[in-house]
Design a protein that fits this description.
By secondary structure, the protein is an alpha/beta fold. It is 44% helix and 13% strand.
């Protein structure tokens, strides 16, 4: 598996949409079985792999033709009888497929690490089954999904800079694709003031060891740190 592989959502030519391929990684048998059942019942999803651990998934991928790989992995982070999911392995997965974490969020440092690894969303095991399916479909639509329970995990992150209200607004608007002039108009300040807010945002991120340089960098940081609200 390498970063040159692309994610194909399996849309055939001249036909209706095929089912999206999903893998489930969960070490608890009953939880895994129910997750598989829930996903298969959605109608537009099909579980092609159901395994206990992330290394086991990588072994399965190594033995499976690329066209049969999942387009989405629903991943639990914690393993009772082994090591927790490795953020480095998760980052490798995110290069070629979407990853949705389904977790009890018991380890805030691990959750923060996998957010930075590029997962597309995080849903909690205490969330409803409809919320889990909503998270799956949001991720497949290239939208992020963060469970409300994640707010306290993000807020306690020592690597999340403390932004003023105006700095946060400027960051979110700019990360959403607005120009500097449009950001200024939206928050009711002059363009040079909006530019100062963004400069402070960059400085504060640099101050916690997470430099951001481009609009893409800022958008990624805003998503990782929960500044975008889930619609």
């Amino acid at each position: 598996m390498n970063s040159g592989d692309s994610l194909d959502h399996g849309m055939p030519h001249g036909e209706g949409p095929r089912k999206v391929r999903v893998a489930v990684v969960e070490d608890h048998l009953l939880q895994r079985a129910r997750t598989v059942e829930l996903l298969d019942s959605a109608g537009d999803l099909v579980v092609v792999a159901s395994v206990e651990t992330l290394p086991e998934l990588f072994r399965w991928l190594s033995e499976t033709p690329r066209p049969e790989w999942p387009q989405l992995v629903v991943l639990d982070l914690m393993v009772d009888r082994g090591e927790s999911a490795d953020p480095a392995l998760i980052e490798r997965l995110t290069k070629v497929m979407s990853v949705l974490v389904l977790s009890a969020l018991a380890s805030p440092p691990l959750v923060r690490a996998v957010l930075r690894a590029g997962v597309a969303g995080v849903v909690g095991k205490r969330d409803s089954e409809s919320a889990i399916l909503g998270a799956v479909h949001s991720v497949l639509d290239n939208e992020s999904w963060l469970t409300p329970d994640l707010a306290s995990v993000i807020a306690s992150d020592p690597e999340r800079p403390k932004l003023s209200i105006q700095e946060e607004r400027a960051m979110v608007l700019y990360a959403s694709g607005l120009t500097l002039d449009a950001v200024a108009a939206a928050i009711g300040v002059k363009p040079h003031t909006a530019k100062k807010y963004l400069a402070r945002v960059k400085a504060k991120y640099a101050g916690v060891g997470r430099p951001v340089y481009t609009k893409i960098d800022i958008a990624r940081a805003a998503r990782e740190d929960g500044f975008f609200e889930r619609e």
